[in-house]
């Protein structure tokens, strides 16, 4: 099952030996099929400038001269010019010791770091490989943060081993915690990324998954993690393969790290990169949803406002292509027809499709009626004048007399008769967020008292979400409004901190409201909702926002869902929805997280508000340690017009 | 000890009975000497609009009409017009139940709240008294938050009992935690304030003090907390008196709450407010520092930049008035002179006053020499051309020949001889923050190798600070720069979460740097500092920023300090310094708080960076639950020019 459409994966190399010649290294890396090489910027001897044992005044003076910005000597540099720049990632010296207790070593380490970085930036290297933080790393974080603030093009790849090899079993989460703290101190800078180094033993899946929410730009494969196949070639274990394949979705660069274990010398060093490319080529073909969503991963879209705005033809076009959704609707109408009248009866069932768009539900209703062998009279109501043109064409060319098309808002239509079945497709990613409840309340007046609404109900679910990627996307707007706006997103770089839970539901027809003389609800308070759900958070993580999903009963057993656990297979009409938090909250392991959610309404609009509160139990005491504000108060930043 | 200069304190009244007539109530409140009255906006019968048991359709229709905004009936209102508006605080009905599990009660409570609030705002009431949050209060917070977002003039006074009377001993901090959560959900809105209700038993001082960092607009004194003196008049216990006096510094309104205990009926209801005014009149006179600081409490000032800017005459004028500081300097010079030469010796001691300003240290040095009976030759070096005019006057009119005045930067002056004693007053609130280290490094070249610097050293201290007041002041600027700038502030509405700890010190003369041919340091790296201090936080609180202080040894035993524990009595030249945090961090009780602080330098400037990290020990595990970014990276927001 080879997949030739997959783009070529970038595979580079990192050697253990520090003091290499650039030209020779580049040549040998190219010969062994690598796309780039991570090379130290200076020779190891440059370490003398730490001056950690300065005694006499002459040496002290030399040190101060160096500190005052003496240029590199040519012999100190490995990367001496910009000849091979496109082929290189610069490596900062491992010996810099920014958190030394010695003021001199600390100061000189920072100067050396700045020097190396500034030379690499001057040459135009686009990525710099920096050392793993040690246990105490605050001064390292500060120094790097300063560099990040000044750098325009250069990205930082921070070497992060997936497990701390010294304590491989006891402490699986330690490296993530360390990384997390480091980037928090650095304001989640978007140019600070991870070069994730795999280990011989990988931690449990739950610990692997948390890395998917992180900005991984490179994956380091030390040669020691490779096994040997029967032909003597390097291969990865099933578990490593699985993880590498998952990582490949995020399109990182790969780096073969020659750790001098020399396990596969007979087959040559090229074998590692060939194997990585082989894994990439044999990735399974993306499924329909992945194909559809390609390019949309982690891309923030504003939810549709079909009531306020008229959808464009291309939007209808895309959604009509969903292979699953309309089949489910057809099935629902089919069963409803069967239940509605007996086969022998000659009665006509009145179906009203409200919000008919370009007519897919009309077509499906006709099909359902044919299959069910029932007589139907269909009305199609649509308020979008452009879509109505298509409806007119459909009626004259395809549907004919059995369909009556009506131009207008379903909430205001004076229907000539009452419907047996009301069919609508007004659901948004959050269920009610495209105002299905309000629209169907208005349409309900021309549904018979015992009539059927398809959908008959929908439930909304939320879960706590971690995703520095999405958070950075939102915060790039640098304003409050975007933090208080929900987005439709195809999740990729995310980790769910707990499984989704239901917050509320809507049912149709709805008998709970008082009507006015026009048979419309006298107000919309019956469609407000308020819910608190409690999540037990087992593993620590950063809460960046809240994911939203819906599950709908179209008719009896015919259900439609975008909730991961029950997702209607192959249906791509809805991505989940994402409600951001203004300030990310670090959730410690074994925390209790309360999420509060509101659906609120005025006479003009509907909006959501949300807030969270995290607590920890210490002995018999519950300590609440992190709360958000209530976001989007009064719908100040985002709302849906009625 | 009566203090007639104290401004009149506002004392109002709150009655237990709900259904009162406004005109009568106002008259009786005035007759008993009160300045205002807290009065319910509607009669208690208005509760019928909760419609908590709506059965038939007719009543349902009535409810919906009311929900749709039917105006108040005149009879439902207690406050019916704006006749007594300046005398009234409106009270929201206690029966509103915003967190009811019943959708109808919840919805109608919010409508009633909005109605009452909007009527009060319409009348122009400037304050609204709202009920204490119950155990579940999220929907209450959301509803109030919405109102806060829309209100322009009206302030909210939230009734907060200082202890939850149901569990008076076990749970002293519960009410503060509740309040804290409530206002966090409400984005720390500046119009949401506390009406703090005192109880018969007051909690321990440490729990009382945390309220000083909160926005207390009113203090409620229920009549039951009053004792009876020998004449039968109401008085407060010593502990209550002490707390009330402390609260009076924040100038809240007081409210006598007639809780129907009827303890002092013989002496009349006026006796309570008279007693409160009596306490206010007999407050101790403010000390010199309080007098000097009056009007400056919690006011953010930018630290001086004497090196970059020339100080104004009025600034010198104020600081020269300090009764303590110059006496300490005189003492230090006196002892240094005694140590420097024997009395019988006829040797002349060379004193150089660097940064002489308008000359106070010159005058004090002359006095010290006279007292010590030592011969001196004094140089006064000053770079501010305006101050130098005054120095010229002083020389010709007062000092005469024994003083040589020099115009120029002390770091560049070519002195004609070397000094025995170098006297300077370059310290800022944070010790080194007005660049004393850099200036004295430059002046050191004309100090004899065994010469004395006054001051000889200074140490910097920090402590974690809670102050929603200061935080709101900083965030009012709505930009990053102000969050990354230190301020000089006379603390008032603050609580220290732990005692100050030392972070670093400077000593003069300083032998640790290499000099260039001009005898100046070749660079400034020796004046960088980095320190981590760990605080154990016993009681929970919100960390809004970091307080800074200094302690200095002028000479041997002569010290000068603005650290609270060792503050030089009566000295007012320095207020503490405040480094804000961009995002406040809630610190749970028994937490460990690490604060990291840097003093950093380039060739052009000096700046500070700071960050914090809070953790909690659960079993054997340390859980880090809250970190800040590293603030002011690279001095991007605040720095001191060299």
UniProtKB/TrEMBL annotation, chains A, B:
Q: Where is the PRMT5 arginine-N-methyltransferase domain?
A: 289-454
Q: Name one GO molecular function term.
A: protein-arginine N-methyltransferase activity
Specify which residues bind S-adenosyl-L-methionine according to the UniProt entry for this protein: 316, 325-326, 382, 409-410
Where do the PRMT5 oligomerisation domain residues begin and end? 457-640
- Keyword list, A-Z: Methyltransferase, S-adenosyl-L-methionine, Transferase
Show the SUPFAM superfamilies listed in the entry.
S-adenosyl-L-methionine-dependent methyltransferases
Query: In this protein, which residues make up the domain named PRMT5 TIM barrel?
Result: 34-281
Pfam families per the UniProt record, alphabetical: PRMT5 (PF05185), PRMT5_C (PF17286), PRMT5_TIM (PF17285)
Gene Ontology cellular-component terms listed: cytosol; nucleus
Give the positions the UniProt entry annotates as the active site.
Answer: 425 (proton donor/acceptor), 434 (proton donor/acceptor)
One of this protein's GO BP terms?
regulation of DNA-templated transcription
InterPro entries cross-referenced by the UniProt entry? Arg_MeTrfase, Arg_MeTrfase_PRMT5, PRMT5, PRMT5_C, PRMT5_TIM, SAM-dependent_MTases_sf
User: Does this UniProt record's set of keywords contain Kinase?
Assistant: no
Q: Where is this site: Critical for specifying symmetric addition of methyl groups?
A: 319
In terms of PROSITE patterns, this protein maps to: SAM_MT_PRMT
Tell me the protein family, please. Belongs to the class I-like SAM-binding methyltransferase superfamily.
Q: What is the name of the protein in this document?
A: Protein arginine N-methyltransferase
Provide the species name.
Funneliformis mosseae
């Amino acid at each position: 099952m080879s997949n030739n459409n997959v783009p070529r994966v970038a595979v580079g190399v990192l050697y253990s030996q520090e003091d290499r010649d650039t030209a020779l290294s580049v040549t040998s890396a190219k010969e062994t099929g690598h796309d780039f090489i991570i090379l130290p910027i200076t020779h190891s001897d440059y370490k003398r400038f730490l001056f950690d044992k300065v005694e006499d005044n002459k040496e002290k003076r030399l040190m101060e001269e160096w500190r005052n910005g003496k240029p590199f000597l040519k012999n100190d540099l490995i990367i001496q010019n910009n000849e091979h720049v496109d082929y290189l990632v610069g490596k900062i010296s491992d010996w810099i010791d920014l958190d030394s207790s010695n003021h001199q070593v600390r100061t000189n380490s920072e100067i050396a770091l700045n020097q190396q970085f500034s030379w690499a930036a001057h040459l135009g290297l686009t990525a710099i490989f920096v050392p793993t933080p040690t246990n105490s790393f605050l001064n390292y974080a500060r120094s790097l943060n300063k560099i990040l603030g000044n750098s325009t093009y250069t990205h930082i790849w921070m070497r992060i081993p997936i497990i701390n090899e010294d304590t491989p079993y006891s402490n699986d989460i330690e490296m993530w915690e360390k990384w997390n703290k480091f980037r928090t101190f650095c304001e989640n800078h978007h140019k600070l990324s991870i070069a994730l180094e795999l280990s011989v033993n990988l931690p449990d899946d739950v610990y692997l998954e948390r890395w998917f929410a992180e900005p991984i730009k490179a994956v380091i494969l030390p040669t020691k993690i490779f096994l040997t196949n029967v032909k003597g070639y390097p291969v990865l274990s099933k578990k490593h393969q699985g993880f590498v394949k998952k990582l490949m979705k995020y399109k990182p660069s790969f780096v073969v790290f020659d750790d001098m274990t020399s396990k596969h010398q007979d087959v040559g060093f090229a074998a590692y990169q060939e194997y990585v490319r082989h894994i990439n080529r044999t990735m399974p073909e993306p499924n329909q949803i992945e194909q559809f969503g390609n390019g949309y991963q982690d891309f923030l879209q504003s939810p549709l406002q079909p009531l306020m705005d008229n959808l464009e033809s291309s939007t209808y076009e895309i959604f009509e292509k969903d292979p699953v959704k309309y089949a489910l609707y057809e099935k629902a109408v089919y069963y409803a027809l069967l239940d509605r009248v007996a086969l022998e009866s000659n009665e006509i069932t009145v179906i009203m499709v409200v919000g008919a768009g370009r007519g897919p539900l009309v077509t499906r209703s006709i099909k359902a009626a044919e299959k069910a062998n029932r007589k139907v009279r269909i009305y199609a109501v649509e308020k979008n004048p452009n879509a109505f043109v298509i409806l007119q064409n459909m009626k004259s060319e395809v549907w004919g007399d059995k369909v009556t098309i009506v131009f207008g808002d379903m909430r205001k239509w004076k229907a000539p008769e009452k419907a047996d079945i009301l069919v609508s497709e007004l659901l948004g990613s959050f269920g009610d967020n495209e105002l299905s409840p309000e629209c169907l309340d208005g349409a309900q007046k021309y549904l018979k008292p015992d009539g059927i609404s398809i959908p008959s109900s929908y439930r909304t679910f939320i879960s706590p979400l971690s995703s520095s990627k999405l958070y950075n996307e939102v915060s790039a707007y640098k304003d409050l409004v975007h933090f208080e706006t929900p987005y439709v997103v195809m999740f990729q770089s995310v980790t769910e901190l707990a499984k989704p839970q239901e917050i509320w539901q809507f049912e149709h027809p709805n008998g709970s409201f008082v009507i006015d003389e026009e048979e419309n609800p006298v107000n919309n308070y019956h469609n407000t909702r308020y819910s608190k759900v409690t999540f037990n958070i087992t593993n620590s993580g950063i809460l960046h926002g809240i994911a939203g999903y819906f599950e709908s009963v179209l008719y009896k057993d015919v259900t439609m869902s975008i909730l991961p656990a029950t997702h209607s297979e192959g249906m791509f009409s809805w991505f989940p929805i994402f409600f951001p938090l203004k300030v990310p909250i670090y959730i410690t392991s074994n925390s209790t997280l309360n999420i509060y959610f509101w659906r609120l309404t005025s006479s003009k609009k509907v909006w959501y508000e949300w807030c969270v509160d995290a607590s920890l139990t210490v002995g018999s005491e519950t300590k609440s340690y992190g709360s958000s504000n209530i976001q989007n108060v009064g719908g100040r930043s985002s709302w849906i017009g009625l």
